[in-house]
Amino acid sequence: ITNLKTIMKQTILFFLCMVGLVSGEAQVSQSAHNSWLVMLQRKDGRQVPFQMEQQSENGKAVLYIINATERIKITNVQTAGDSIFFTMPAFESSFRLQILPGGNMRGTYIKGTSGATQYWPVHAYTNVKDRFTAQNGNSKNNISGRWDVSITRANGTIRKAVALLEQQGNKLTGSFLTPSADYRYLDGIVSGDSLKLSGFDGDNIHLFEAKINDSNTISAGVFYNGYTGKETWTAIKNDAIALPEANEPTRLRRGETRLNFTFNDLQGKPVSINDERFKNKVVVIQIMGSWCANCLDETKFLADYYAQNPARMTSGRRSKEVEIIALAYELTTDIKRSQKSVSKFQQLFNVQYPMLITGVAAGDEKKTEKTLPQLTPIRSFPTTIFIDKKGNVREIHTNFYGPASGEYYIESKKKFYGTVDKLLNEKL
Which DSSP helix (H) or strand (E) runs through 204? Predict the structure, then answer.
């Protein structure tokens, strides 16, 4: 109750300040305070850090959230008095902060979910360079390389992953890869015999901690995931480890060869796979959600590919040889909310292919039967379906590894190009 009252007071103060707002593009601060160590506080009190910088571009305040080599640009920055408000360029998340004397900040991170909105306490400390401090001194081992990871769920079952780690001195970066996705950019430290890695992209909030036994074994790991998630993990160094296979990946049901769907686009216009636009073409179906960080990585890739994909003359007009359709499964069945969230993706990457709202929530256990009954259950986001020129489903890829995964990102792109090129070279 006390936390709720505090949040309500902060929100009221923020809106009172907003009454006096003159420009939504005001400078965050005229002082020398242009970088912060930001701490997001989970429900259990554990704090997840990330770094943020401020710059002025064309006279406007711009913020950057930093995770290893990733820099997430935030242009929607508003200030009023000692208050600052900004929304993430993707995802249903925003910040309301108060700038304190000296340049520190405090306030609330607001995150939309499939249920109740989450309100996370935030503290930001000015001009703190390092995400983690080397409390245990210099690292005792170098753990660069590939690791065979076992993550134990709260119910005691184990899921497998691969960790790709790179260490330079005390600095540690990398990512964890599961059969369906990667945990994107993680940034942290090795100090003494311990490691810490964290990442924040507007939606995903990850913190990994563990003990380094030696250069080949990691134990006593804890993975803090989101607002309440908590799992344990261990790892063994294995540079030859392969990614684990997905359990029951999505496939065509027996006897099915084609998809058959019609959903509305972001303007409410119905689009069908049977439309003339897609006839006799290779078509890529992107199963995605605007809440999904790996879908963000795939959307950027697909938007760039589609923009560069050459058009040809067909029936007196130019058309693409390869078409793409995104099918969005959102957090809720609220169409307006879904349109707003998917539109952020569309605008961020200037997506020119149709993005359709299925109207079925991603968490609905019957989502596949309600939308694409020709398939076995959709278990991972993104899932990518490849349709040949005759309209038949030919391949289904149940993962896409983003740029944080290094070689696996390159392989994901190669796999996409190879599949599309094979289908393009086939005759009708």
Answer: none
Which of the four pLDDT bands, split at 50, 70 and 90, describes residue 245?
A: confident
What pLDDT, on the 0 to 100 scale, is given for residue 43? 97
Based on its alpha-carbon atoms, the radius of gyration of the chain, rounded to whole angstroms, reads 23
Would you say 375 and 252 are in contact if contact means Cβ atoms under 8 Å apart?
A: yes
d(CA 196, CA 282): 45
| C-alpha to C-alpha distance for 204 and 119, rounded to whole angstroms | 15
Structure tokens given for 254: 């027996």
| Spatial separation of the C-alpha atoms in residues 425 and 329, rounded to whole Å | 32
**Quick one: tokens of 373?**
């009954």
The amino acid sitting at 289 is: G
Task: Tokens 């311990």: give the residue.
Answer: 194
Q: Is the dihedral of CA 307, 313, 318, 323 positive or negative?
A: negative
List beta partners, residue 199: 206
pTM over 0.85: yes
pLDDT per residue over 350-394, tens digit each?
999 999 999 999 999 999 999 999 999 999 999 999 999 999 999
Sign of CA dihedral 21, 23, 24, 27: negative
List the beta strands (DSSP E) in 138-241: 145-152, 158-168, 171-177, 186-191, 194-200, 205-214, 217-225, 229-237
Give the whole-angstrom CA distance, residue 316 versus residue 51.
Answer: 53
The two structure tokens encoding residue 21? 């707002």
Cβ count within 10 A of residue 56: 12
Which of the four pLDDT bands, split at 50, 70 and 90, describes residue 258?
A: very high
What is the distance between the alpha carbons of residues 173 and 69, in angstroms, rounded to a whole number? 9
Residue 391 has what DSSP assignment?
S
